[in-house]
Specification:
Blueprint lengths: L1 E2 L2 E2 L8 H12 L6 E5 L6 H12 L12 E2 L7 H12 L6 H10 L4 E5 L8 H13 L4 E6 L5 H5 L7 E4 L8 H11 L9 H4 L11 H5 L17 H14 L9 H6 L2 H7 L6 H13 L5 H15 L1 H4 L10 E7 L13 E3 L7 E5 L5 E5 L5 E4 L8 E6 L5 E5 L4 E4 L10 H14 L3 E5 L10 E4 L3 E6 L2 E6 L5 E10 L7 E9 L3 E5 L11 E2 L4 E9 L2 E8 L4 E5 L6 E4 L7 E5 L2 E6 L2 E6 L2
Parallel strand pairs: 3-6, 3-7, 4-5, 5-6
Antiparallel strand pairs: 1-2, 8-30, 9-10, 10-11, 11-12, 13-14, 14-15, 16-17, 17-18, 18-19, 20-21, 21-22, 22-23, 24-25, 25-26, 26-27, 28-29, 29-30
Length: about 600
């Protein structure tokens, strides 16, 4: 069926009236903002919602019929649902509060679909702490699969009289179409309006017990259980069974077994645990919720454990994936509270081979870039929260505060490059021409250049040889900026600058001062850019970018279309490239990732 260029998928078993009813609910602004799909087992509730999601998530779907997020609830704990929904809505969220704040701030209509709500790990808690508070926002609509009289259905209070579509009632099924479906499906038409009964499907068997599942696990040559070779499906069932009896047994101590099973089952099973491994799992949950590759899940978990539990990290592989963490410092509220990062940059001059990192107190620490070893601090006239920092080729540190003010810390000894007076003059000239400064980046090996700045109007400013050059690159503020120098063959200058900028518009742009910027962004993601980095590897120049939903993307600029996407758990606020190492700074800490 096609409607105005929108191709609507077929809906079998005569359920067209039910589908039209859902469309009618979506179309009617006066309809209750909660629609509950009910019916006995096998009546087709999940099939109907799957059809709605398929119809409601295409590029051609009309705005009033669009489904914005899907929360498969079966087996899921509240945490797992929050992680998944946060990723779909473009925010890194660990608890319901921040997620609800983001939803409240964006007053555009939002429709969420929640299949199998009754099968959630804690359906009543999921409703009370997340779904019902969502319905208190006037622009949010929910369509949920929940049986009448069940714990989930009874927990909703925000909508006094929800719409109910009970598929056991005959008006939601076309009898003639049902009969035609039954004839082709080999079903009994007398089962109308129930597809499950018509097909003679028995009720789902009870879940297998732990001993039954253990019997399916292979053995090592020494006769021990080989849980690591059990496979994702069996291992996931083992986690679910262990959660039912409240005893995780050998699953609890082996980090690889956490990564090899599906995250929803693990998250529900470890609810309430407060050991180092459980805290690490909770911290990286937003990166795991939608990740299908066990190898990637293992890499993410290992990255966290490197800075909190090195012995556990050693149980996870360092080969077989596209990236691996080399070192990390994390704060989980109990260890290393100074690890939190506000901004970071690669050092130069007296800070060569070092990273400079700001923390929430306004201090600037120095780390060995290759190992992460802590080296010292930068003496500042007045520490305060910084939104950015850069180091010039001469070793001068330029810091940008939250109000757009630039502070200069002169090097202890003068090296080739702008001396402090000339550098301060350059900063003053840029500040005089710019809107509020929002981002800063230095380009090494260009001694006559000052750091570049981005501003709140989307403009990037460059100063060299006494001249300021400016280009508007973004709609809305520049939120991130980075730079490097490239070899310039056939030119008088030995090296030329390349700037990479990110914006509130989700775009990543490249600009070589003295040239016209590229017409199109090199990357675009529907969330604000939170950090960028640009550097040179053995394979050529690369650009890394991070967005507010936690995504980090590394892209080569040598024409290779291959990109590396990764997530580490928290939102990434800062990035730096040191050879093949991508350093990520987050509110929880810092890690260096070898991108091969």
């Amino acid at each position: 069926m096609t409607e105005g260029g929108w191709r609507i998928p077929a809906l079998g078993a005569g359920r067209r009236p039910a589908g039209l009813a859902l469309f009618g609910w979506l179309d009617d602004p006066r309809a209750p903002r909660l629609c509950r799909v009910a019916g006995s087992a096998g009546s087709g509730k999940s099939h109907l919602l799957a059809w709605l999601v398929q119809a409601g998530t295409t590029e051609e779907t009309p705005g009033d019929r669009r489904v914005h997020a899907v929360l498969p609830a079966a087996g899921a704990s509240l945490r797992a649902v929050v992680w998944s929904l946060g990723q779909q809505l473009g925010v890194v969220a660990h608890r319901p509060g921040p997620l609800l704040e983001v939803l409240a701030a964006d007053e555009r209509r939002t429709v969420l679909c929640v299949p199998e709500l009754d099968l959630a790990a804690e359906p009543q808690r999921l409703v009370e702490e997340l779904l019902d508070p969502m319905l208190r926002l006037p622009h949010v609509r929910l369509v949920v699969e929940a049986a009448t009289g069940g714990a989930a259905a009874s927990a909703f209070t925000a909508v006094a009289d929800p719409a109910v579509l009970d598929l056991d009632e005959p008006q939601w099924t076309d009898r003639e179409r049902f009969a035609a479906w039954a004839a082709t499906a080999g079903a009994d038409p007398e089962g109308f309006p129930h597809p499950g009964r018509s097909l003679g499907r028995a009720a789902a068997p009870p879940p297998a017990s732990a001993p039954e599942l253990i019997a399916l696990v292979g053995r090592t040559p020494e006769g021990k259980l080989d849980l690591r070779a059990a496979g994702e499906d069996l291992l996931t069932e083992l986690w679910t069974a262990a959660a039912r009896i409240g005893d995780l047994g050998p699953l609890a101590a082996d980090p690889l077994l956490w990564a090899l099973a599906r995250p929803v089952a693990v998250t529900a099973a470890v609810e309430g645990r407060d050991d180092a491994l459980a805290r690490a799992w909770d911290a990286v949950g937003p990166a795991l919720a939608e990740e299908p590759d066990p190898a990637v899940r293992a890499a993410v978990l290992r990255t966290r454990l490197l800075g909190t539990d090195p012995a556990a990290a050693a149980a996870l592989p360092t080969t077989g994936g596209r990236w691996v963490a080399r070192w990390a410092h994390w704060s989980d509220g109990r260890t290393d509270p100074a690890a939190a990062v506000g901004a970071l940059t690669v050092g130069a001059g007296e800070y060569v081979a070092q990273l400079l990192v700001t923390d929430p107190t306004g201090a600037v620490r120095t780390l060995d870039a290759a190992t992460g070893r802590r080296l010292g601090t930068v003496v500042l006239p007045a520490p305060r929260p910084w939104r950015g920092l850069a180091v010039t080729s001469a070793g001068a540190v330029v810091l940008l505060d939250g109000y757009g003010g630039a502070e200069l810390v002169a090097p202890t000894e003068q090296r080739p490059g702008l001396e402090p007076y000339a550098l301060q003059e350059a900063l003053d000239e840029i500040a005089a021409e710019a809107a509020e400064l929002t981002a800063v980046a230095a380009v090494g090996r260009l001694p006559k250049a000052a750091p570049a700045f981005g501003d709140a109007a989307g403009v990037v400013h460059w100063y060299q040889d006494g001249l300021v050059e400016s280009e508007r690159l973004h709609r809305g503020a520049v939120t991130a900026l980075a730079g490097t120098a490239l070899a310039a063959e056939g030119r008088a200058d030995p090296e030329i600058p390349l700037l990479a900028s990110g914006g509130l518009d989700g775009a990543v742009r490249l600009w070589g001062p003295g040239t016209v910027p590229m017409n199109q962004p090199i990357d675009l993601h529907p969330h604000p850019v939170t950090a960028v980095a640009v550097g040179t590897t053995a394979a050529g120049p690369v650009v890394a970018a991070a967005w507010a939903d936690g995504l980090v993307r590394l892209r080569h600029l040598n024409g290779d279309t291959d990109v590396l996407d990764l997530r580490v758990g928290p939102e990434v606020h800062a990035l730096a490239m040191v050879g093949n190492l991508l350093v990520v700074g987050t509110p929880d800490g810092v890690a260096a990732i070898d991108t091969h």
